[in-house]
Amino acid sequence: MKTQDRKARARPKRRAPPKISHTHKPADLAPVDWQRALRRQFGREQAFHWKNIGDEAIFSDFQVSNPASRSRYRVTIRGLQPGDNRCSCPDFATNELGTCKHIEFVLAKLLKKRGAKAAFARGYQPVFSELVLHNDGRRSVRFRPGSACPAALRKAAARLFAQPRGDLHPDRVDDLESFMNAAAKAGHELRVPGEVLDFVAGWRDAAHRARTLDRLFPRGAADWGRARLTKLALYPYQVEGALFAARAGRALIGDEMGLGKTAQAIAAAEILARHFGVSRVLVVCPTSLKYQWQGEFLRFAGRKARVIAGGRAQRQKDYARDDFCKITNYEKLDPDLDLITGWAPELVIVDEAQRIKNWNTIAARALKRIDSPYAVVLTGTPLENKLEELISIVQYVDQHRLGPTWRLLHEHQVRDEAGRVIGYAGLDTIGKTLAPIMIRRRKAEVLRQLPERTDSTILVPMTEAQMRYHEDNADIVARIVQRWRKTRFLSDTDQRRLTCALQNMRMACNSTYLLDQESDHGVKADEVAALVDDLAAQDAKAVIFSQWTRSHDIVIRRLKARGLGYVSFHGGVPSEKRPALVQRFRDDADCRVFLSTDAGSTGLNLQHATTLINMDLPWNPAILEQRIARIHRMGQKRPVRIVNLVAKGTIEEGMLGVLAFKRSLSAGILDGGAGEVSLGGSRLNRFMKDVENVTGRMGEAAEVAPAEEHAFESAAPNAGARSGGQGVAGDTGAVPMVPGEGRDRSAPATAHAAQDPWVTLAGLGRQLLGAFAAAHDNGAVHPWVERDAPSGRSSLKIPLPSPEMARELAAALARFIEAFQGCDSS
């Protein structure tokens, strides 16, 4: 016993190998050997759980689980050399080392078993053959023949799998199925793992997409108009981006901000839906953009998208619904991962993808676990600070594109003597590597002839007087809509009253002056004046559009008060005088403002202005773009700003939320002679549905600027105006000349066609009573009441109706008197 103890003490102790640094490569190791050694070292230190799930003791399949992370992977052991074995973990799929910590863990455990070293020395000699997926710098399928592989099958494999690497050639993918069938007919077992089938399927899908797109779009963007895949026109570069994304299948659109990445993603989704069977699209975006995406899908594709919101129970119901598109935010990816994977989206659109530049975040890890065949990733800043950020984003698109992270950083990072990263080198080669999956355009590349254009929407508040007009006319609209719901029919009179009421709602959004020509309660003109003040300080000029010349009147008052020069262009200006107005605006340095109705929305070149202000938005989007084209056009050499003033909580805001309304009114139903247009059949139905949508969406705080038809950069909406309105507390407001039914105080007589004189007379009576009451209330204000300051006495100034209406009123009164006298005599 003592002898044995002495021998044990005499036996030298086996020293543990020196620790390999994770940050500093040993000088005697190549980078690839260093990385393999790190995984070998780390794997042997782990306390993973493992079990044999195959049929053999050594060359078998093993399940390796990590109790800490609760992850579980399948390890296939075939030998001791790198590339012999397989693992289902993400690191093995991308590191191009032929090993990973899970494989090294299993090998370390197996080598302790009796007979393991001899088995590895003999090598793996299975009876069956198998196809394996190799990834040693280039992913490829290879054939590994078994000992019982028939000679004919070996001969066929020699033709199919090219030498010297033995890779399956991409052009021979279609022959692989016949090769597998030949093995089955010969009675020989050929094992094909799922990863091989997935890889081959991806090859086939890519080839099919390329052939289909080449057939549908042989001239690229030039064939887009013929395809009619989107409701709104796209710029050629946007079409190119959509086609690029569809062809790649999984792509990164890294265009600069303001070039319309959203439109490109939606167009790509339409291509994939129409021609490649995609029926479930998931949009992942910041919370603040969810409803904007919903609106954009409707505008560009005419598709309804469901915003995922609410509690877990509600979200579960939403994911159970059969929708084409669902929109969620980053924060809900992890808690809803089971719901998302259960819904199984086929296309995932990731907006503001810089949110996933760090794979260590919960949202980024959850996103990576969403398995979809197609993906479109959007970011204007794919690389902000570190190369690792780009790697993180690209790995979601194509985890193999950049190769292993360790190699990329080793080749491109520049370190100082202490090992700190001080810069990057050779980044141009990364761009070439990314070319098949990433498209990035700068504004200077695609807008060489057009300057920068910025669209912004300013939400302005309404005064109480404005809201009374607006609400009264909204009541008329609601009653007519209710009548239409019941009968699905509207008389010509109802149609005219409806269009007049809608028109009055829009006019009230500018100022009460547009309705009564007396008071001027409204904020928009003050906002315009503030904007013009800023431009005057910058020695710049502005074009201001409104559908109504009365809007010009209230703006002119403010311009005169500031001593600013202007011209007013409208349909009443004789054609021979119009060129002089344009020339004065162009040449007179003191003429700062060009006021125009839509009479000036075409044919005028006003590039000397840098700002265009829309006091009101036309129903027809084409007219809106015609307005903008007055200054944003060829020859413009300065940045252009488009400002849309939208009254908050009104029909104007509803127009932003339901842009389909513009489509149904594109013929100009309300923009010119609406009271004379009679609708019927399906056109009336569409019109009424859109009326319901617009008036039902008022006040939903839409954030999308309607001028974003070209998807340029949009400024954040302003919550209010810079200056206050002219509303007076307790103001009774001015009521229009021709009221309708109930509380219907619709519009001036000039805005109406023929009306019932009895209704008109009743309305005049109500107005007269209101004026009497205001005349005896010193705190009240009424446009008909005038007060003499010295004496304090009040008098009424009643505006007269039109001659036609006056004659109808007189005739109605005469008939009433005759009827009354007849009753009295009886």
UniProtKB/TrEMBL annotation:
Annotated SUPFAM superfamilies: P-loop containing nucleoside triphosphate hydrolases
Sequence ranges assigned to domain SWIM-type in this UniProt record: 73-111
CDD domains reported for this sequence: DEXHc_Snf, SF2_C_SNF
Keyword Zinc-finger: yes
UniProt keyword annotations, A-Z: ATP-binding, Helicase, Hydrolase, Metal-binding, Nucleotide-binding, Zinc, Zinc-finger
All residue ranges annotated as the Helicase C-terminal domain in the record: 527-685
Biased composition, class Basic residues, residue ranges: 8-24
Stretches assigned to the Helicase ATP-binding domain: 242-400
Gene Ontology molecular function: any one: hydrolase activity
Region (Disordered): 1-28
Name by which UniProt lists this protein: Helicase SNF2
Source lineage: Bacteria, Pseudomonadati, Pseudomonadota, Gammaproteobacteria, Acidiferrobacterales
